[in-house]
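User: Could you check the structure of this?
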Amino acid sequence: MEAIYPYAHIIHLILAIIFLGYVFSDLAVISTLKNKFDKETQQKINQTLGKRSFKIFPLTLLFLVLTGGMMMSKYINSNAGFFETGLQKILVFKIALVLIIVIGVASNLYVKFTNGKKSNFMENHFHKLVIVLGLFIVIAAKWMFLV
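Assistant: Sure, the predicted structure tokens are below.
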């Protein structure tokens, strides 16, 4: 496991940049564009972006979780313990934040595959939550090596 850790770390960082970068660009740029056009053009924008993000967003998150799990196993395992150190406690906190995002994305995928209707929160506020949680996850990732 020690041999692949640096590679998993690099892949994880690149994917985190892509993931949070997409969410940020959706909040800061794309959402402001949507209000500048008529309803028909807004629908076309949503459909076009939705198709692309549906391919990128879940796969990026999946590989983020997989590489994160690989790295986590270095610090949390049956030999090292689970809540023994400050690093482990912060890492578990970070994992809890990640699970909130994973549950939200899984919920969105379920709604998409079942042709259901997104809740108002998921439609209008989920990316705001993701960017805030992402910020806390990044801070926790650095903080856990300081304690």
